[in-house]
Specification:
The protein is α/β, with parallel strands linked by helices. The protein contains 7 helices and 6 strands.
Length: about 190
């Protein structure tokens, strides 16, 4: 089990990088996997301290038979932690075929569009997603293998604009083993 205090690490990173200002309205992208569930849990722990207004967003891509179970799990989590939730299903496969996108690229595009749609409806300024330090390392390694310039080595930013919202990654300085340790402890 990890000895890292993930809540404290996230609060430090958010303060250092000014990721989520006090009073922010935040849509949290929750897939139902360990990283996004940990992100939701950490932000609920910081909610009152930072006066955050949270809203869960889950996109059922409809690509796996169990995707409905994931959606139901995320819905239950939101209800259990008293965080309003938006659960939507979009036919990602059909959208990808129509747009000529690969499934991976299309799923990402459709997911971020759904998060942005929810942020607009909720008047949210921020969209929080659960990329970890492992994702950062993997991205840099993949870009090195493919061959990249200096700009490509920057990998995943802590925050980036997405139209009128900011996509933020509060777990970006936390390793996945620490996320799993946090979940086991909680």
């Amino acid at each position: 089990m990890s000895g890292v205090d993930v809540v404290a690490a996230v609060q430090r990173a958010m303060s250092t990088y000014r990721v989520l200002p006090s009073g922010a309205r935040v849509v949290i992208g929750v897939s139902g996997g360990a990283d996004s569930v940990a992100l939701l849990h950490v932000l609920t722990r910081l909610q009152s301290r930072l006066r955050l207004c949270l809203h869960v967003a889950h996109l059922d891509h409809g690509l796996r038979l169990e995707s409905g179970e994931d959606a139901a799990f995320v819905q239950r989590l939101g209800a259990q932690w008293r965080i309003p939730s938006t659960i939507e299903r979009r036919d990602v496969q059909a959208i990808c075929a129509q747009q000529g996108w690969s499934l991976e690229e299309g799923a990402r595009r459709v997911r971020y569009q759904m998060f942005l749609d929810v942020a607009r409806r909720q008047s949210a300024s921020h969209i929080a997603v659960a990329h970890t330090a492992d994702d950062q390392a993997e991205t840099v390694l993949m870009r090195l293998i493919r061959g990249t310039g200096l700009m490509g080595l920057g990998a995943i930013p802590m925050m980036r604009p997405l139209e009128e919202a900011w996509v933020v990654r509060p777990l970006l300085h936390v390793w996945r083993r620490d996320v799993l340790g946090h979940l086991a402890k909680e």
